[in-house]
Amino acid sequence: MSSKMNPLVLLSIFLDIVTAANIFVSHYQGTIQSLTLTPTSNGGYTLTTNSSANVGGQPSWMTFDPATRTIYSSDETGFGSASLTAVTAAANGGVSLVGKATGVTLGGVHNTLYGLGYIAVAHYQMSSITTYKLPLSSSSRSLQTLKYTMNGPGKIPSRQDAPHPHQVLADPTGSFILSPDLGADQIRIYSIDKSTGKLTECPNFITAPGTGPRHGEFDGKTLYVGNELANTVSAYAVSYPDNGGCLTLTLKQTLTTIANNKTLPSGSKVGEVHVKGRFLYVSNRRDLSFSPNDSIASFSLDDAGLMKFLQITSSGGTYPRTFSINKAGDLVAIGDQTTANVVVVKRDVTTGLLGAQVASMRIGSTGTPENDNGLSAVLWDE
């Protein structure tokens, strides 16, 4: 006697196997979670919790190395002792803590992998960048600590009382690390010794006073930087001298990230920046463009890398600190910090337009604006 499975059930199982995707999420309560995004038979999606790892401290940022399936998380703890953690992700997305460096400089807000097995961390609170050799363990110690000072406060003293490096990112050649410094109105530039991990200072790029550069992303020989204090995004031409030497930047264009130059509520600020194909996206925090929700601004890019405002869409929550575009380019995961929810929206791969929300899930406790709580980062498992 034989039995046959319902074709709809078979289709559902097939869709789950082929198209289910994992999303990593960090929360300031000390956890890194893996969520599974699964398509439904009616064309929608569901988000469910797959796995959770307790990493302690205040995980603020995640960098994923797909080659080793390791997530590296910086810790924004502002007192006592901070850490830098390594979390392994199984093939099914399950996460578990595998390494932790302790006694790390406080206030780690971002990290990046570089060279032959090194990681750099930006420490906003402590006005510094540190570097470490991988793998991480309890015996790990910083290779370099680059400490910054200022002669006096910047144009916006409440935010520019000291240097505040907010990101570290490697250029496409892997030969340089850049760090937007919100407090000092600079983009710091370092050359990399790939073997030893040593960073050597290059001439910095000085932005206009009160710009507050926060996060950037390279697209070939153009660098796009979101400016937190000015609520703008800037495009820079990237140059490499023929005889070696240091990478240099030339400002090409700066645009507002808000539609119709509307008056912004107090506390509005740019979040993260991403490029996908010939399109650029910037998150706006506390702009209330879709009150009570905030927004994602979209721009088209021409052959010269110049930006043109395209659209503004809801972030599906408040304070979109981070967002991540999948490799296929058809889905965007948004991490709304204050409402502590992950929102997934559609993206048209041809027009670059962001579309309908297809899934949303609350993660942990909600946060409060201007505080290190709520959801901190979101990242596709790719």
Describe the structure.
The chain is mostly beta strands. It has a domain at 1-49 and 271-285 and 295-368 and 375-382: YVTN repeat-like/Quinoprotein amine dehydrogenase (Methylamine Dehydrogenase, Chain H, 7 Propeller). It is built from one helix and 29 strands. The strands form seven sheets. Strands 12, 13, 14, 15 and 16 form a five-stranded antiparallel sheet that branches. Strands 3-2-1-29 form a four-stranded antiparallel sheet, covered by helices on one side. Strands 4-5-6-7 form a four-stranded antiparallel sheet, with no helix packed on it. Strand 17 (213-219) and strand 18 form a beta hairpin. The longest helix has 13 residues, at 7-19. The chain is globular and about 65 Å long. The termini are far apart.
Notable features of this structure?
382 residues; mainly beta; Methylamine Dehydrogenase, Chain H; 5-stranded antiparallel β-sheet; 4-stranded antiparallel β-sheet; 3% helix; 51% strand; signal; Isomerase YbhE
Structural topology:
Blueprint: H1 7-19, E1 21-27, E2 31-39, E3 45-54, E4 59-65, E5 70-75, E6 82-89, E7 95-104, E8 108-114, E9 118-123, E10 128-133, E11 144-147, E12 169-170, E13 176-181, E14 186-192, E15 199-201, E16 205-206, E17 213-219, E18 222-227, E19 232-239, E20 248-256, E21 269-276, E22 279-285, E23 295-301, E24 307-314, E25 320-325, E26 331-336, E27 341-347, E28 354-362, E29 375-380
Antiparallel strand pairs: 1-2, 1-29, 2-3, 4-5, 5-6, 6-7, 8-9, 9-10, 10-11, 12-13, 13-14, 14-15, 14-16, 17-18, 18-19, 19-20, 21-22, 22-23, 23-24, 25-26, 26-27, 27-28
